Amino acid sequence: MALQVxxxxxxxxxxxxxxxxxxxxxxxxxxKPQKSTVITRLLTAGGLLGAFLLAAAAKDEPFPENLSxxxxxxxxxxxxxxxxxxxISVESFAHLLREIKSFDKRQKYLQNILSELxxxxxxxxxxxxxxxxxxxxxxxxxxxxxxxGVKKIEDKPYRFIFINNFMNSxxxxxxxSLSTDDVLNTKTREDVFELLEKKLIEHKEKMKNQFSVxxxxxxxxxxxxxxxxxxxxxxxxxxxxxxxDLVRELEIYNKYYEMPIAALSIDEAHRPExxxxxxxxxxxxxxxxxxxxxxxxxxxxxxxxxxAIDEKKSEVVFHYMAHGGKTGKISSSDGHILPREIAKVISxxxxxxxxxxxxxxxxxxxxxxxxxQLDGIKKYFxxxxxxPVKNLRIITESKYTTASASLxxxxxxxxxxxxxxxxxxxxxxxxxxxxxxxxxxxxEVELKSPxxxxxxxxxxxxxxxxxxxxxxxxxxxFHYQNNPKENKTTKKYFTDSRQIANxxxxxxxxxLVVETNEILRT
Length: 522
Description:
Layout: H1 12-23, H2 45-59, H3 70-78, H4 94-99, H5 103-117, H6 133-141, E1 145-151, E2 159-164, E3 175-179, H7 180-185, H8 189-206, H9 208-214, E4 228-234, H10 242-256, E5 261-266, H11 271-280, H12 294-310, E6 315-321, E7 330-332, E8 335-337, H13 339-346, E9 349-350, E10 353-354, H14 355-358, E11 360-366, H15 370-383, E12 389-396, H16 425-442, H17 454-468, E13 476-483, E14 488-495, E15 506-507
Parallel strand pairs: 4-5, 4-6, 6-11, 11-12
Antiparallel strand pairs: 1-2, 2-3, 7-8, 9-10, 12-13, 13-14, 14-15
Helix pairs in contact: 1-6, 1-8, 2-5, 6-8, 10-11, 10-16, 12-13, 13-15, 16-17
């Protein structure tokens, strides 16, 4: 399903007229401006403390004694804001947010604080008779933008993280960030509305290549009901958190998508922790672990593919986590695997046809430099364009860069109840996405397609990873089909900042898709 990208008004005059139109009422130019004074914004130390106390009450726990409000109360008294003065200590603010164990309670906590900081942005309990700037912004763009996180980056001011919660008609992934300075310095509702539009313009400019790809017509999800089978591999790595990443992804595949877990190739060094985590998640009937050597991984993958064909399954998912090299090598317990070796397995003849002609295959490459692994598999098939390929999708954790493995709930833009240790950002946000959708399900929210699909999940993870790694890491999603008999090839990136010139079906080998913007980053 195509995601609709809205046009953003950039002229201040147009924004003013747009705000008036959305509000559907006339603003009297002679009336007093809705300036948020010290009194109306309740930003004395006591006023802000009240917001924190409300949050603590919602949490049903004692309020921490080490709350520091001196900086922000001083800056309000002076009405002269500086970055240093508007900071609140991490221990008192972000930490408390991350101690709250509920989406509803965290959102109430943030709503209380922001309504105290600037009621023109968010109104608490409907105290404002008129719609807030955020209400009008969501109405204009058909978003359901909501503050769902707070982020502190080194010595910079706090940033309030707003995301589209997918509960309106426009469900494209959106992430806007407002600093404490942004929130405190916008005096009127028009100021706030203009600020939100400015942030949206900046966001869509920064992510313009992703939006260009996301806005193309494309649908993708894994078949449920046991029609998709999964193999996972975890090779030797000294990165903490990989065991929990593997178990969380396995849980998504098995419990959400109802995938039988056909094989688990786990390095011996990781087995005790993986077994412990699987036990806590209630997994019982899983296949016996096999070695994570190069030979064992490739042999197991081939067996899983052949068995899926025998059992007339629709799709096979192969998800591996390992170290990756700049040349595309994938680490195993006893050496490495080359991308072309994976390509050879899926193109082997079985029952008179190539395996990849008989079953859909998705490969999730969870490693550094996994974009090079994608390229290696893709080039293998491009050079052998006589091999029929039904549907081959390759999703990578990064492009041509290292993949972070040190994201923690303290450093993430959004808080997860399930994540307590270090994680890769892509795995973190894929898990957060499912956790959030489960929360919506308990509230009996009807989700609009493609929300809930794996396509939408990976695009959301792409967006959040882009920001939480300062654009150092972006997932890639690539789809390849080949029908030599009809002389048709399809290549399509379904999430990535790299585009291809023509990602639709092409007729004739001389007109194969030309790819652009493939710049090696090291």
